[in-house]
Amino acid sequence: MTAEADRRFMSLALALGRRGLGRVWPNPAVGCVIVREGRIVGRGRTADGGRPHAETVALAEAGAAAEGATAYVSLEPCAHHGQTPPCAEALIAAGVARVVTALEDPDPRVAGRGHAMLRAAAIAVTTGVMEPEARAGQQGFLTRVRLGRPMLTLKLAASLDGRIATASGESRWITGPEARRRVHAMRATHDAVLVGAGTARADDPELTVRGLGPTPMPQPVPQPVRVVAARGLDLPRGGKLAKTIAEAPLWLLHGSGAPSAARADWQALGARLIVADEGPDGRLDPTAMLAALGQAGLTRVFCEGGGAFAAALLQAGLVDRLALFTAGAALGAEGRPALGSLALDRLEAAPRLALESVERVGADMLSHWSRR
Question: What pTM, to 2 d.p., does this model score?
Answer without folding.
Answer: 0.93
